[in-house]
Amino acid sequence: MRFSGLQVLKEGLTGNKGWGPHWRDPEPKSEYDIIIIGGGGHGLATAHYLAKEHGLTNVAVLERGYLGGGNVGRNTTIVRANYMLPGNSEFYSHSLKLWEGLEEDLNYNVMHSQRGIINLFHSDGQRDAFARRGNQMINQGDDAILLDTDGVRQHLPYLDFKQTRFPIYGGLYHPRGGSARHDAVAWGFARSASQRGVDLIQNCEVTGFDIVDGVVRGVQTSRGPIRAKKIGMAVAGRTSQVAEMAGFRVPIESHVLQAFVTEGLKPVIDHVVTYGMGHFYISQSDKGGLVFGGDLDMYASYAARGNLPIVEHVSEAAMTLMPVIGKAKMLRSWGGIMDMSPDGSFIMDKSPIDGLYINCGWCYGGFKATPASGHTFAHLLATDQPHPTTIRHRLDRFRTGRGVMDEEATGSQHNLH
Ligand SMILES: Cc1cc2nc3c(=O)[nH]c(=O)nc-3n(C[C@H](O)[C@H](O)[C@H](O)COP(=O)(O)OP(=O)(O)OC[C@H]3O[C@@H](n4cnc5c(N)ncnc54)[C@H](O)[C@@H]3O)c2cc1C
0.85 exceeded by the pTM? Predict the structure, then answer.
């Protein structure tokens, strides 16, 4: 079924009896041309683009739980292209362009909303750094406007401009940035991939690899062995564990990141606002909840839930920036497992095993990458060549020291990114 306004009207008038499941629920076949491990945003997007751009449909996505139950359904949904370093800037620029056409491409309402992002700055040095970042964004074809304090006040009148600890000097405004409904992104890619012939296999955990003479031949799963000519890993926070099954180590540490949402409120926050000094970012969902987050829990863990000190830390930062938030009741908080790379940039490459490809290291920024990650990973899997926007994202860059992309300029260390 193609979704349209007319279809909604027709179903509304006929008792909503015509809607079917969004994707098929097939039994796994014994062999595929390509297997994608991980039914998160990146795995599902890869399947969509493999089918759509490369005509490859003898493909399966294997997901240990349910589609979209990982980080893709747990994030704070910020979509932006305000990256600075060569390698990252053109990749995220490419991703934002794909976001802008995604709903038509998928025939699915992912609620992509370009409401604008404002990154606040609080010192002269930070202003210089943001001005440089903004100029670079404009040069590469993205948008950026440097705001002074009054400029920020016009957009965000509810902030505390009198705070003395980190006075607001201004902000870098990125109007094309914004947010999207995270579950819908997973569902939209899943529906499209399934319609094009890709098998989406849920409750199917990969437990091992069949490797002969350094070449991958298939996987062992909780639903039996499945053979494949090529296998792509898109398992985010579980990357180290899955790579270990194939016998190699990756430069990834898994850390917990928490998110929070308040009760539904009338519209108060029009933009996405980030407050780097306090490590806090916030937006308002279409249901009215204030959605916000902060820093990592700062110790390696595979637990998809967080600790209380971070709840306190994030709440403190929130109160410093916008004391009005103290009146809102917090409804829920949750955690996700982040695949942190040493330089804060992702890895997309062939692995040391022939036929096995790796996609990981998205840190806490991989939601905005979802379309481009799928698009470029599909390119790598289909052609054996990196897409022009991922040439620098090699697995060996930490061993060789060549091409490290340290976006935060904090040094090559996991917990600083
Ligand atoms: C709290 C929080 C806030 C965030 N905020 C933002 C944000 O605002 N903007 C942004 O850009 N990014 C954000 N992120 C990061 C972003 O969500 C992730 O980088 C991105 O979702 C990771 O890619 P994915 O969607 O493919 O991961 P996932 O959805 O985690 O998909 C990986 C899948 O692999 C499956 N899997 C693992 N092991 C196996 C196995 N052995 N066999 C089969 N399947 C397996 C998992 O079950 C999972 O479904 C945030 C993350 C969190 C947790």
Answer: yes
